[in-house]
């Protein structure tokens, strides 16, 4: 919030009116296309497979909880959710800490080679993560990291750093010089300024990069697919794929598992949506 | 940094009375501060640099090296074959299909998602009650994992799935197809699903861009009697230029390395015939699962080279003007 005084003010509070019927009709149509398949999957989880086969587009009749109960009690859902959480939280924490430290230096220190270092990081935006996956696998194998959380966390951190630094740097640069001088007069060192002033002021941007890193990690598939062959370490995306290929005839069960796997990301994003859009404004400013 | 240092300077030299000592004290304080500054620079950037070099740049280097060998991944690579793996790839019709599919996804995504996203973003940028809810709903597909979305659409599209049932009930039974199994149809089905999933990302970026358009401009245009559409056409959309180009850039790079969705939706047989293969699935199929490590790494290098050249051309011709403030912008 405090950053509002630093950055251009966001659109001011204005009176909000009802839109035209046409606006609502269009918005409703768009929303329906976006979420109808998701709603179908969630509701489908409350039906039985014979019901679905008989009438694919119908409503649950009667309502069945059994699929959800089965997934939560008999599959590895909880284990996979736990693995996903450990990996996503580890990735997010490391990305935010390392990204903030590097972005702070690139924004607030003047030194030879600064722009070179920045370009060096931004080059990473051009490297498709997928292209490096085979040699990455071989390297992790040589380091004896296959089948460990690190095998997923470390590469994910590395590939998230460029975007993180690109988003954080303009934010940190926008903190006025006077604030830094004032902090120095009050006896704060540069690191004190980082910790006590720059960090709190850039909280919106930190949340943005944190959420982006978390969601990317939570949803990632290719890297875990290659480096986590141990079923006990599988993450939710791997779990969804296993479950669906293992129980091909249990359509209702697959629908239930798929909806449960969607839930955490959806909740998380709903809570943080405003923040993400706000944080991106700095990055897409022309 | 200098102003902050100067402020702290008097404390260092305050006790020294003779002028010479005073100057020496100030110099040594400055030197100490410069040294401390370098410790801080190195200390704060090293962890990020090390992890980035080790897990992004080094693997890319190894990909280039391994791609020159015929190698099954056991022991060090010994059988040097030069560029043979590359010529083999470009002679394999399935790899060429994968290239074509990637091209379809890149251009299809840009041409379909762009106009849709622009329309939706302009609509959702109007002020009306409930707007926030609609914005949230539009982003839903983007947040979900590609794997989850893939499995979901697979259930909706395979066999006599819900989509087919829906078409029949609407009297459009003639459109029913083997969406994911027909070799001529599957890539277009996947393009439609990818559009459904990723158009929300374009909308997020455009809405962020729209919120940077100054209200005063729009108000001025409205006072001059411009209609809503004229304002969009002549004020808002031109100002979105940088955002649109950044989105095109990210969409292009993403489309080139698309993997998850293709992997979980298309039948392996369909994929291995090239109907839905992409460079990434081809690379993993050959390199990882068939254990042709040298060959797989050559495909990885081709994928990287195409992305890199595309990115450079894009930057050179389209992003150049935006670069200052945007993606790789210098701090102002």
TrEMBL record, chain B:
Q: Where in the cell is it found?
A: Cell membrane
Q: Enumerate the transmembrane spans.
A: 41-68, 103-124, 136-156, 185-208, 246-264, 292-314
Pfam families, per database record: BPD_transp_1
Where composition is biased (Low complexity), the residues are 10-19
Question: What segment(s) does the record annotate as region Disordered?
Answer: 1-31
Q: Mind telling me which PANTHER family this protein's record contains? A: ABC TRANSPORTER PERMEASE PROTEIN (PTHR30193), INNER MEMBRANE ABC TRANSPORTER PERMEASE PROTEIN YCJO (PTHR30193:SF37)
Q: What's the protein name?
A: Raffinose/stachyose/melibiose transport system permease protein
Per the UniProt record, the source organism is Micromonospora ureilytica
Q: What is the lineage of its organism?
A: Bacteria, Bacillati, Actinomycetota, Actinomycetes, Micromonosporales
């Amino acid at each position: 919030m405090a950053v509002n005084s630093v950055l251009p003010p966001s659109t001011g509070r204005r009176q909000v009116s009802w839109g035209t019927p046409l606006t609502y009709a269009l918005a409703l149509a768009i929303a329906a296309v976006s979420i109808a398949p998701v709603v179908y999957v969630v509701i489908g989880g409350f039906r039985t497979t014979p019901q679905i086969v008989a009438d694919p587009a119908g409503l649950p009749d009667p309502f069945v909880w059994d699929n959800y109960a089965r997934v939560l009690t008999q599959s590895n859902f909880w284990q996979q959710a736990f693995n996903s959480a450990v990996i996503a939280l580890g990735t997010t924490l490391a990305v935010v800490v390392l990204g903030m430290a590097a972005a702070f230096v690139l924004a607030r220190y003047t030194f030879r080679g600064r722009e070179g270092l920045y370009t060096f990081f931004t080059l990473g935006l051009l490297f498709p993560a997928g292209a490096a996956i085979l040699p990455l696998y071989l390297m992790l194998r040589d380091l004896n990291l296959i089948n460990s959380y690190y095998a997923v966390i470390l590469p994910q951190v590395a590939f998230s750093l460029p975007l993180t630094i690109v988003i954080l740097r303009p934010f940190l640069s926008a903190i006025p010089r006077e604030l830094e001088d004032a902090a120095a007069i009050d006896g704060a060192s540069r690191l004190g300024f980082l910790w006590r002033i720059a960090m709190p002021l850039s909280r919106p941007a930190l949340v943005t990069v944190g959420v982006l890193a978390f969601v990317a990690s939570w949803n990632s598939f290719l890297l875990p697919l290659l480096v986590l062959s141990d079923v006990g370490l599988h993450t939710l995306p791997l779990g969804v794929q296993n479950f669906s290929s293992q129980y091909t005839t249990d359509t209702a069960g697959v629908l239930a598992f798929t909806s449960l796997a969607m839930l955490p990301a959806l909740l998380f994003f709903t809570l943080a949506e405003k923040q993400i859009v706000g944080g991106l404004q700095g990055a897409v400013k022309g | 940094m200098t102003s902050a240092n100067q402020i702290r300077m008097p404390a260092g030299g305050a006790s020294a009375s003779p002028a010479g000592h005073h100057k020496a004290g100030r110099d040594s304080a400055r030197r100490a501060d410069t040294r401390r500054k370098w410790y801080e620079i190195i200390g704060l950037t090293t962890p990020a640099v090390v992890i980035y070099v080790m897990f992004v740049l080094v693997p890319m280097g190894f990909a280039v090296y391994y791609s020159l060998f015929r190698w099954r991944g056991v022991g060090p690579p010994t059988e040097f074959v030069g560029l043979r793996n590359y010529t083999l790839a470009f002679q394999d019709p399935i790899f060429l299909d994968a290239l074509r599919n990637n091209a379809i996804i890149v251009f299809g995504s840009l041409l379909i998602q762009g106009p849709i996203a622009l329309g939706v973003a302009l609509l959702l940028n109007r002020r009306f009650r409930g707007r926030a809810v609609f914005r949230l709903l539009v982003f839903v597909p983007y947040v979900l994992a590609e794997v989850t979305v893939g499995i979901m659409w697979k259930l909706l599209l395979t066999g006599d799935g819900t989509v087919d049932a829906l078409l029949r009930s609407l009297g459009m039974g003639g459109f029913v197809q083997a969406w994911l199994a027909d070799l001529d149809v599957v890539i277009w089905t996947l393009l439609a699903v990818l559009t459904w999933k990723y158009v929300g990302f374009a909308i997020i970026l455009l809405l962020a861009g729209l919120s940077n358009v100054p209200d005063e401009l729009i108000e001025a245009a409205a006072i001059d009697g411009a209609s809503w559409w004229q304002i969009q056409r002549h004020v808002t959309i031109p100002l979105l230029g940088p955002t649109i180009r950044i989105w095109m850039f990210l969409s292009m790079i993403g489309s080139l390395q698309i993997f998850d969705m293709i992997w979980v939706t298309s039948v392996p047989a369909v994929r291995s015939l090239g109907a839905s293969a992409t460079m990434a699935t081809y690379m993993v199929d050959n390199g990882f699962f068939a254990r042709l490590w040298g060959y797989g790494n050559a495909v990885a290098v081709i994928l990287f080279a195409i992305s890199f050249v595309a990115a450079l051309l894009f930057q050179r011709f389209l992003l150049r003007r935006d670069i200052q403030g945007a993606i790789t912008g210098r701090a102002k």
